[in-house]
Amino acid sequence: MGIWKSGLSSKHEGNLEEGLRRMRKGEGYDLHFQENLAHIIRSSYQPQGDEKAPSHDDFFEASKILAVYLSACLAGQVPRGYEDSPLFSQGQSGLVYRALDDKWPADQAVAELLKLYLESEQGEGGVEGWREDQARSVFAALLKVTTVDKINTFGNALATSAPHFARNNAIHHLDNLVEKGTFDNETRMAFRKVLKSDMESMFFGDFFGKVDIVSFASQARGEKDAILKAMAEKSVMQDALSRAILL
Fold first, then answer.
1. What pTM, to 2 d.p., does this model score?
2. Buried (b) or exposed (e) across 226-237, using 16+ Cβ within 10 A?
3. Is-contact 213 220, C-beta < 8 A?
4. Is residue 196 helix, strand or coil?
5. Distance CA 68, CA 87 (A)
6. CB of 90 within 8 A of CB of 120?
7. So which domain of life are we looking at (predicted)?
8. Is the dihedral of CA 148, 154, 159, 164 positive or negative?
9. DSSP code at position 88
10. How far is CA 241 from CA 23, 130, 165, in A?
């Protein structure tokens, strides 16, 4: 999980409440609010350590979830079309009404909804669900740097060895493919960058040949959840909403 770099200044003080009041009444509602929010998130979220840089889609999906939760809190009900969405489990729906009844500030309510959402995401599928998520991310990362045919070529080569998917084994097969003229060095380095540890190599080996690569990878969660984790605090939500409304 990365960190949030605040951009609040004196010009934002006292304006969040007024901005939300106008949004509740539909006065001067900015149809580009979600785009503004995505821009704020992109400029303020900073990945840490080995965390991958979020993609455009990650920022868009994070801003969409926040905009939907804010809309629910302002209206006091689940938005139309989201009644059966994973965003609104029984716990989330109940929290929307509780926030309204107790007159929670919108930034606090959205932060609490985010926490519930992230808890449900983490618990979904248990260990096996976590393994699938990790594998999806590996295949998605490979598709960004190489082709399905080359992934299949490498996977088939890897499958000829004993069921030991350590990174050294993966590197051995990549080197062999280069020596045979099947891969060039650029392709080899692209694979090595994604399969950067035993864990990524293991997830690749465990799922290769058992899934449709493109379809499986398309369901990868990316870094969206990491962004949302960093934002699931009242102070961060106050920062993001204040700046998005006034941008």
1. 0.64
2. bbbbbbbbeebb
3. no
4. coil
5. 9
6. no
7. Eukaryota
8. negative
9. S
10. 12, 31, 45
What one-letter code names the amino acid at 95? L
Q: Which amino acid is at 138?
A: V
CB 115 within 8 A of CB 107: no
Q: Which 3 state secondary structure label does DSSP give 155?
A: helix
CA pair distance 239, 140, nearest whole angstrom: 32
Report how far residue 201's alpha carbon sits from residue 167's, in angstroms, rounded to the nearest whole number.
5
Q: Where are the domains of the chain?
A: 3-125+223-246, 128-217
Alpha-carbon gap, residue 172 to 158, rounded angstroms: 9
Structure tokens at 191: 């694979």
Show pLDDT as tens, one digit a residue, over the chain (247 residues): 689 998 877 666 666 777 787 777 765 555 578 888 999 999 999 988 767 788 888 899 899 989 888 888 887 777 778 877 777 776 667 777 777 666 778 888 889 888 888 877 665 555 567 788 889 889 999 999 999 999 999 999 999 886 666 889 999 999 999 999 999 999 999 999 999 988 899 999 999 999 999 988 887 766 888 899 899 999 999 899 988 886 5
Q: What is the rounded distance in angstroms from the CA atom of residue 206 to the CA atom of residue 199? A: 10
Q: What is the largest CA-CA distance in the chain?
A: 69
Amino acid at 41: I
Q: Cα–Cα–Cα angle for 27, 113, 81, nearest 5°?
A: 60
